[in-house]
Amino acid sequence: MTDKKLIAVLGATGSQGGGLVRALLDDPDREFAVRALTRSTDSKTARELAAAGAEVVAADLDDGASLRTAFDGAHGVYVVTNYWAERTPEEEARRTRAEMELSQADHAALAAKQAGVEHVVWSTLEDTRDVLGTDGRVPTVEGRYKVPHFDAKAEADAIFVEYEVPTTLLRTTFFFEGFAGAMAPRRTDDGELVLALPMADQPLSGIAVADIGKTAAAVFKRGRDLVGKTVSIAGDHLTGNQYAAALSDALGEPVAYLPVGWDDFRAQGFPGAIEMGNMFQYYAENSARFVGDRDLDAVRDLNPELLSFRDWLSQHAAEIATRLG
Ligand SMILES: NC(=O)c1ccc[n+]([C@@H]2O[C@H](COP(=O)([O-])OP(=O)(O)OC[C@H]3O[C@@H](n4cnc5c(N)ncnc54)[C@H](OP(=O)(O)O)[C@@H]3O)[C@@H](O)[C@H]2O)c1
Q1: Is the domain defined by 173-208+234-290+308-325 classed in CATH 1.10.101.10?
Q2: In the chain, which segments carry CATH 3.40.50.720?
Q3: Residue of the nearest CA to atom 35 in ligand 1?
Q4: Which of 8, 145, 164, 251 has its Cβ near the most Cβ atoms within 10 Å?
Protein backbone atom coordinates (compact mmCIF):
# COMPACT_ATOMS: atom_id res chain seq x y z
CA MET A 1 0.00 0.00 0.00
CA THR A 2 1.05 3.58 -0.56
CA ASP A 3 -0.11 6.84 0.93
CA LYS A 4 0.20 8.57 -2.44
CA LYS A 5 -2.93 9.65 -4.27
CA LEU A 6 -3.82 7.13 -6.92
CA ILE A 7 -4.54 7.79 -10.61
CA ALA A 8 -6.38 5.00 -12.47
CA VAL A 9 -5.62 5.10 -16.20
CA LEU A 10 -7.88 3.64 -18.88
CA GLY A 11 -6.18 2.85 -22.18
CA ALA A 12 -2.97 2.26 -20.21
CA THR A 13 -1.69 -0.27 -22.76
CA GLY A 14 -2.36 2.19 -25.59
CA SER A 15 -0.91 5.45 -26.87
CA GLN A 16 -2.64 8.10 -24.77
CA GLY A 17 -2.99 6.17 -21.52
CA GLY A 18 0.45 4.59 -21.93
CA GLY A 19 1.98 8.06 -22.22
CA LEU A 20 0.18 9.13 -19.05
CA VAL A 21 1.36 6.06 -17.11
CA ARG A 22 4.95 6.78 -18.16
CA ALA A 23 4.63 10.48 -17.31
CA LEU A 24 3.26 9.71 -13.85
CA LEU A 25 5.90 7.06 -13.14
CA ASP A 26 8.70 9.33 -14.46
CA ASP A 27 7.53 12.34 -12.45
CA PRO A 28 10.52 13.32 -10.27
CA ASP A 29 8.08 14.19 -7.45
CA ARG A 30 6.31 10.80 -7.84
CA GLU A 31 3.24 12.62 -6.63
CA PHE A 32 0.83 9.88 -7.69
CA ALA A 33 0.66 6.10 -7.59
CA VAL A 34 -0.53 4.59 -10.87
CA ARG A 35 -3.17 1.94 -11.53
CA ALA A 36 -3.03 0.78 -15.16
CA LEU A 37 -6.37 -0.58 -16.39
CA THR A 38 -6.59 -3.14 -19.16
CA ARG A 39 -8.84 -5.96 -20.32
CA SER A 40 -5.81 -8.28 -20.51
CA THR A 41 -3.71 -8.14 -17.37
CA ASP A 42 -1.33 -10.81 -18.64
CA SER A 43 -0.48 -9.15 -21.99
CA LYS A 44 3.17 -8.27 -22.67
CA THR A 45 2.39 -4.55 -22.37
CA ALA A 46 0.52 -5.05 -19.11
CA ARG A 47 3.45 -7.00 -17.66
CA GLU A 48 5.83 -4.21 -18.75
CA LEU A 49 3.63 -1.64 -17.00
CA ALA A 50 3.71 -3.73 -13.82
CA ALA A 51 7.50 -4.05 -14.08
CA ALA A 52 7.74 -0.25 -14.46
CA GLY A 53 5.89 0.26 -11.18
CA ALA A 54 2.19 0.45 -12.06
CA GLU A 55 -0.47 -1.60 -10.33
CA VAL A 56 -2.20 -3.48 -13.16
CA VAL A 57 -5.92 -4.09 -12.70
CA ALA A 58 -8.54 -5.61 -15.01
CA ALA A 59 -11.28 -3.31 -16.31
CA ASP A 60 -13.54 -3.22 -19.35
CA LEU A 61 -15.34 -0.08 -20.46
CA ASP A 62 -18.25 -2.29 -21.51
CA ASP A 63 -18.59 -3.62 -17.95
CA GLY A 64 -19.59 -0.88 -15.52
CA ALA A 65 -19.13 -3.11 -12.45
CA SER A 66 -15.50 -3.78 -13.43
CA LEU A 67 -14.88 -0.02 -13.65
CA ARG A 68 -16.50 0.59 -10.29
CA THR A 69 -14.09 -1.92 -8.71
CA ALA A 70 -11.11 -0.63 -10.68
CA PHE A 71 -11.78 2.99 -9.64
CA ASP A 72 -12.04 2.06 -5.96
CA GLY A 73 -9.72 4.27 -3.89
CA ALA A 74 -8.64 6.33 -6.90
CA HIS A 75 -8.19 10.08 -6.53
CA GLY A 76 -8.15 10.56 -10.29
CA VAL A 77 -9.19 8.66 -13.42
CA TYR A 78 -8.10 9.16 -17.02
CA VAL A 79 -10.89 8.15 -19.36
CA VAL A 80 -10.19 7.46 -23.03
CA THR A 81 -12.47 5.42 -25.27
CA ASN A 82 -11.23 3.80 -28.45
CA TYR A 83 -13.60 4.58 -31.31
CA TRP A 84 -11.40 2.53 -33.63
CA ALA A 85 -11.38 -0.61 -31.44
CA GLU A 86 -11.28 -3.96 -33.21
CA ARG A 87 -14.78 -5.37 -33.21
CA THR A 88 -16.41 -8.68 -34.06
CA PRO A 89 -19.03 -8.76 -36.86
CA GLU A 90 -21.64 -9.42 -34.13
CA GLU A 91 -20.59 -6.27 -32.28
CA GLU A 92 -20.63 -4.27 -35.54
CA ALA A 93 -24.21 -5.43 -36.13
CA ARG A 94 -25.30 -4.76 -32.55
CA ARG A 95 -24.37 -1.09 -32.22
CA THR A 96 -22.57 1.72 -33.98
CA ARG A 97 -19.12 2.85 -32.85
CA ALA A 98 -20.61 6.12 -31.61
CA GLU A 99 -23.16 4.17 -29.52
CA MET A 100 -20.25 2.15 -28.13
CA GLU A 101 -18.27 5.28 -27.15
CA LEU A 102 -21.31 6.92 -25.55
CA SER A 103 -22.14 3.80 -23.56
CA GLN A 104 -18.52 3.40 -22.45
CA ALA A 105 -18.30 7.07 -21.37
CA ASP A 106 -21.55 6.59 -19.44
CA HIS A 107 -20.15 3.54 -17.64
CA ALA A 108 -16.95 5.42 -16.78
CA ALA A 109 -18.72 8.56 -15.54
CA LEU A 110 -21.18 6.57 -13.40
CA ALA A 111 -18.41 4.43 -11.92
CA ALA A 112 -16.35 7.55 -11.16
CA LYS A 113 -19.37 9.09 -9.43
CA GLN A 114 -20.05 5.93 -7.39
CA ALA A 115 -16.38 5.56 -6.44
CA GLY A 116 -16.18 9.19 -5.30
CA VAL A 117 -13.36 10.03 -7.72
CA GLU A 118 -12.21 13.62 -7.20
CA HIS A 119 -10.79 14.34 -10.64
CA VAL A 120 -11.60 12.77 -14.00
CA VAL A 121 -9.71 13.79 -17.13
CA TRP A 122 -11.88 12.90 -20.14
CA SER A 123 -10.08 12.68 -23.48
CA THR A 124 -12.45 14.37 -25.88
CA LEU A 125 -12.82 16.38 -29.10
CA GLU A 126 -15.05 19.07 -30.55
CA ASP A 127 -18.49 18.51 -32.13
CA THR A 128 -17.88 18.98 -35.85
CA ARG A 129 -21.57 19.56 -36.58
CA ASP A 130 -21.17 23.07 -35.14
CA VAL A 131 -19.25 23.83 -38.35
CA LEU A 132 -20.18 21.13 -40.86
CA GLY A 133 -23.88 21.49 -40.03
CA THR A 134 -26.48 18.76 -39.97
CA ASP A 135 -27.79 19.09 -43.53
CA GLY A 136 -26.50 17.26 -46.59
CA ARG A 137 -23.61 19.64 -47.42
CA VAL A 138 -21.23 17.07 -45.94
CA PRO A 139 -22.20 13.37 -45.93
CA THR A 140 -23.82 12.08 -42.74
CA VAL A 141 -22.21 9.08 -41.02
CA GLU A 142 -23.76 6.69 -38.47
CA GLY A 143 -27.19 8.30 -38.60
CA ARG A 144 -26.68 11.69 -37.00
CA TYR A 145 -22.96 12.42 -37.13
CA LYS A 146 -20.49 14.02 -39.51
CA VAL A 147 -17.30 12.82 -37.76
CA PRO A 148 -18.59 10.30 -35.20
CA HIS A 149 -15.23 9.84 -33.45
CA PHE A 150 -15.30 13.58 -32.69
CA ASP A 151 -19.04 14.16 -32.33
CA ALA A 152 -19.77 11.21 -30.01
CA LYS A 153 -16.93 12.25 -27.69
CA ALA A 154 -18.30 15.82 -27.62
CA GLU A 155 -21.80 14.46 -26.85
CA ALA A 156 -20.30 12.42 -24.03
CA ASP A 157 -18.96 15.59 -22.36
CA ALA A 158 -22.50 16.18 -21.08
CA ILE A 159 -22.60 12.76 -19.38
CA PHE A 160 -19.78 13.75 -17.01
CA VAL A 161 -21.64 16.98 -16.25
CA GLU A 162 -24.95 15.17 -15.66
CA TYR A 163 -23.38 12.80 -13.13
CA GLU A 164 -21.69 15.82 -11.51
CA VAL A 165 -18.29 14.18 -11.79
CA PRO A 166 -15.42 16.66 -11.22
CA THR A 167 -14.03 16.59 -14.75
CA THR A 168 -11.47 18.32 -16.94
CA LEU A 169 -12.26 18.05 -20.64
CA LEU A 170 -8.96 17.39 -22.42
CA ARG A 171 -9.50 18.18 -26.09
CA THR A 172 -6.86 16.41 -28.15
CA THR A 173 -6.04 16.68 -31.85
CA PHE A 174 -4.41 14.85 -34.79
CA PHE A 175 -1.44 12.72 -33.67
CA PHE A 176 1.87 13.50 -35.42
CA GLU A 177 2.22 9.67 -35.46
CA GLY A 178 -0.25 9.74 -38.36
CA PHE A 179 2.63 11.04 -40.51
CA ALA A 180 4.46 7.78 -39.83
CA GLY A 181 1.30 5.78 -40.61
CA ALA A 182 -1.75 6.28 -42.80
CA MET A 183 -0.87 9.91 -43.62
CA ALA A 184 2.85 9.32 -44.29
CA PRO A 185 4.44 10.83 -47.41
CA ARG A 186 4.48 8.44 -50.37
CA ARG A 187 6.62 8.09 -53.45
CA THR A 188 4.91 8.70 -56.80
CA ASP A 189 5.66 6.65 -59.92
CA ASP A 190 8.05 9.49 -60.88
CA GLY A 191 10.03 8.91 -57.69
CA GLU A 192 8.91 12.19 -56.07
CA LEU A 193 7.81 12.31 -52.44
CA VAL A 194 4.36 13.80 -51.84
CA LEU A 195 2.42 14.56 -48.68
CA ALA A 196 -1.23 14.11 -49.63
CA LEU A 197 -3.30 15.97 -47.07
CA PRO A 198 -6.82 17.41 -47.49
CA MET A 199 -6.13 20.70 -45.67
CA ALA A 200 -6.30 23.25 -48.53
CA ASP A 201 -4.11 26.16 -47.30
CA GLN A 202 -5.20 25.92 -43.66
CA PRO A 203 -3.16 24.89 -40.58
CA LEU A 204 -3.71 21.49 -38.99
CA SER A 205 -3.12 21.24 -35.23
CA GLY A 206 -0.99 18.21 -34.41
CA ILE A 207 0.52 16.69 -31.28
CA ALA A 208 2.96 13.94 -30.35
CA VAL A 209 0.79 11.34 -28.66
CA ALA A 210 3.20 11.10 -25.71
CA ASP A 211 2.48 14.78 -25.04
CA ILE A 212 -1.19 13.98 -24.44
CA GLY A 213 -0.15 11.80 -21.50
CA LYS A 214 2.42 14.32 -20.25
CA THR A 215 -0.13 17.12 -20.38
CA ALA A 216 -2.80 14.96 -18.71
CA ALA A 217 -0.31 14.24 -15.91
CA ALA A 218 0.16 17.98 -15.48
CA VAL A 219 -3.61 18.47 -15.37
CA PHE A 220 -3.85 15.96 -12.50
CA LYS A 221 -0.99 17.73 -10.72
CA ARG A 222 -2.64 21.13 -11.21
CA GLY A 223 -5.74 19.54 -9.66
CA ARG A 224 -8.90 21.34 -8.65
CA ASP A 225 -8.01 24.56 -10.55
CA LEU A 226 -8.73 22.68 -13.76
CA VAL A 227 -11.88 20.82 -12.67
CA GLY A 228 -14.81 22.06 -14.72
CA LYS A 229 -12.41 23.50 -17.32
CA THR A 230 -11.65 22.58 -20.91
CA VAL A 231 -7.96 22.19 -21.78
CA SER A 232 -7.44 22.14 -25.55
CA ILE A 233 -4.03 20.90 -26.61
CA ALA A 234 -1.64 20.77 -29.58
CA GLY A 235 2.12 20.76 -30.16
CA ASP A 236 2.13 22.68 -33.45
CA HIS A 237 -0.19 24.33 -35.97
CA LEU A 238 1.22 23.91 -39.49
CA THR A 239 -0.10 24.14 -43.02
CA GLY A 240 0.39 21.31 -45.50
CA ASN A 241 3.31 23.22 -47.02
CA GLN A 242 4.90 23.63 -43.58
CA TYR A 243 4.46 19.94 -42.70
CA ALA A 244 5.99 19.04 -46.08
CA ALA A 245 8.92 21.45 -45.54
CA ALA A 246 9.67 19.93 -42.12
CA LEU A 247 9.46 16.43 -43.61
CA SER A 248 11.80 17.49 -46.47
CA ASP A 249 14.40 18.70 -43.97
CA ALA A 250 14.09 15.62 -41.78
CA LEU A 251 14.19 13.12 -44.67
CA GLY A 252 16.88 15.03 -46.60
CA GLU A 253 14.81 14.91 -49.75
CA PRO A 254 12.09 17.24 -51.13
CA VAL A 255 8.50 16.43 -50.08
CA ALA A 256 5.77 18.27 -51.99
CA TYR A 257 2.44 19.08 -50.37
CA LEU A 258 -0.47 17.69 -52.40
CA PRO A 259 -3.71 19.36 -51.24
CA VAL A 260 -6.29 16.62 -51.86
CA GLY A 261 -9.93 17.73 -52.26
CA TRP A 262 -12.35 16.58 -49.57
CA ASP A 263 -14.68 14.87 -52.08
CA ASP A 264 -11.69 13.09 -53.65
CA PHE A 265 -10.54 11.94 -50.21
CA ARG A 266 -14.04 10.67 -49.31
CA ALA A 267 -14.30 8.84 -52.66
CA GLN A 268 -11.28 6.60 -51.91
CA GLY A 269 -13.58 3.89 -50.59
CA PHE A 270 -11.48 2.52 -47.72
CA PRO A 271 -13.35 1.94 -44.43
CA GLY A 272 -13.67 5.32 -42.71
CA ALA A 273 -12.79 7.36 -45.85
CA ILE A 274 -15.97 9.46 -45.63
CA GLU A 275 -15.55 10.12 -41.91
CA MET A 276 -11.87 11.01 -42.34
CA GLY A 277 -12.62 13.26 -45.33
CA ASN A 278 -15.25 15.02 -43.23
CA MET A 279 -12.72 15.33 -40.39
CA PHE A 280 -10.15 17.10 -42.58
CA GLN A 281 -12.88 19.36 -43.99
CA TYR A 282 -13.75 20.27 -40.40
CA TYR A 283 -10.10 20.89 -39.45
CA ALA A 284 -9.71 23.16 -42.49
CA GLU A 285 -13.02 25.03 -42.32
CA ASN A 286 -12.72 25.53 -38.55
CA SER A 287 -8.97 26.13 -38.39
CA ALA A 288 -9.11 29.67 -36.99
CA ARG A 289 -11.23 28.54 -34.03
CA PHE A 290 -9.54 25.16 -33.57
CA VAL A 291 -6.04 26.64 -33.62
CA GLY A 292 -7.12 29.66 -31.60
CA ASP A 293 -8.43 27.38 -28.83
CA ARG A 294 -5.04 25.63 -28.62
CA ASP A 295 -2.55 28.12 -27.24
CA LEU A 296 0.86 26.45 -27.50
CA ASP A 297 2.31 28.63 -24.73
CA ALA A 298 -0.46 27.58 -22.36
CA VAL A 299 0.06 23.90 -23.23
CA ARG A 300 3.83 24.32 -22.77
CA ASP A 301 3.17 25.94 -19.39
CA LEU A 302 1.50 22.66 -18.34
CA ASN A 303 3.97 20.44 -20.19
CA PRO A 304 7.37 22.09 -20.74
CA GLU A 305 8.54 19.05 -22.76
CA LEU A 306 5.88 19.67 -25.46
CA LEU A 307 7.28 18.71 -28.87
CA SER A 308 6.90 20.78 -32.02
CA PHE A 309 6.55 18.80 -35.26
CA ARG A 310 10.23 19.33 -36.04
CA ASP A 311 11.16 18.11 -32.51
CA TRP A 312 8.98 15.05 -33.07
CA LEU A 313 10.55 14.42 -36.48
CA SER A 314 14.02 14.46 -34.97
CA GLN A 315 12.93 11.33 -33.04
CA HIS A 316 10.79 9.68 -35.74
CA ALA A 317 12.13 10.56 -39.21
CA ALA A 318 13.93 7.21 -39.45
CA GLU A 319 10.61 5.34 -39.07
CA ILE A 320 9.15 7.35 -41.94
CA ALA A 321 12.25 6.80 -44.08
CA THR A 322 12.10 3.03 -43.45
CA ARG A 323 8.49 2.99 -44.51
CA LEU A 324 9.39 4.73 -47.78
CA GLY A 325 12.02 2.07 -48.52
N1 LIG B 1 -5.13 9.05 -34.13
C2 LIG B 1 -5.40 10.34 -33.93
O3 LIG B 1 -4.85 11.23 -34.63
C4 LIG B 1 -6.37 10.73 -32.83
C5 LIG B 1 -6.49 12.08 -32.52
C6 LIG B 1 -7.35 12.46 -31.47
C7 LIG B 1 -8.06 11.48 -30.77
N8 LIG B 1 -7.93 10.16 -31.12
C9 LIG B 1 -8.72 9.17 -30.36
O10 LIG B 1 -7.85 8.35 -29.61
C11 LIG B 1 -8.63 7.21 -29.20
C12 LIG B 1 -7.70 6.02 -29.10
O13 LIG B 1 -6.68 6.31 -28.17
P14 LIG B 1 -5.26 5.66 -28.31
O15 LIG B 1 -4.69 6.01 -29.67
O16 LIG B 1 -4.50 5.99 -27.10
O17 LIG B 1 -5.64 4.11 -28.33
P18 LIG B 1 -4.75 2.85 -28.76
O19 LIG B 1 -3.30 3.15 -28.68
O20 LIG B 1 -5.31 2.32 -30.05
O21 LIG B 1 -5.11 1.81 -27.61
C22 LIG B 1 -6.43 1.48 -27.31
C23 LIG B 1 -6.55 1.36 -25.79
O24 LIG B 1 -7.92 1.26 -25.46
C25 LIG B 1 -8.09 0.21 -24.55
N26 LIG B 1 -9.43 -0.33 -24.73
C27 LIG B 1 -10.06 -0.58 -25.90
N28 LIG B 1 -11.30 -1.07 -25.65
C29 LIG B 1 -11.42 -1.12 -24.31
C30 LIG B 1 -12.46 -1.54 -23.45
N31 LIG B 1 -13.62 -2.04 -23.90
N32 LIG B 1 -12.27 -1.44 -22.12
C33 LIG B 1 -11.10 -0.96 -21.62
N34 LIG B 1 -10.08 -0.55 -22.39
C35 LIG B 1 -10.25 -0.63 -23.71
C36 LIG B 1 -7.01 -0.79 -24.88
O37 LIG B 1 -6.71 -1.53 -23.72
P38 LIG B 1 -6.62 -3.13 -23.61
O39 LIG B 1 -6.67 -3.70 -25.00
O40 LIG B 1 -5.31 -3.38 -22.90
O41 LIG B 1 -7.81 -3.51 -22.78
C42 LIG B 1 -5.84 0.12 -25.28
O43 LIG B 1 -5.10 0.49 -24.15
C44 LIG B 1 -9.72 7.03 -30.24
O45 LIG B 1 -10.99 7.11 -29.63
C46 LIG B 1 -9.49 8.18 -31.23
O47 LIG B 1 -10.70 8.74 -31.70
C48 LIG B 1 -7.09 9.77 -32.11
Answers
A1: no
A2: 1-171
A3: 11
A4: 8
- Among 168, 133, 120, 177, which residue's Cα sits nearest to residue 312? 177
Mean pLDDT within 139-152: 97
Closest ligand 1 atom to residue 62 Cα is 31
- Give the pLDDT score at 1: 58
Q: Is 51 helix (H, G, I), strand (E, B) or coil?
A: helix
User: If you take atom 12 of ligand 1, which residue's CA is the nearest one?
Assistant: 82
Q: Which of 23, 5, 9, 6 is nearest to 217 (CA)?
A: 23
pLDDT digits over 34-92, tens only? 999 999 999 999 999 999 999 999 999 999 999 999 999 999 999 999 999 999 999 99
Ligand 1 pocket test: which of 44, 82, 101, 149 has the largest number of ligand atoms within 8 Å of its C-beta? Answer: 82
User: Of all protein residues, whose CA lies closest to atom 1 belonging to ligand 1?
Assistant: 175
The answer, yes or no, to whether any atom of ligand 1 lies below 6 A from the CB of 16, is yes
Instruction: Enter the CATH code of domain 1-171.
Output: 3.40.50.720
Q: Does the Cβ of 96 fall within 6 Å of ligand 1?
A: no
Please state the pTM of the whole predicted model.
0.98
Classify residue 96 as left (phi > 0), alpha (psi -120 to 50) or beta: beta
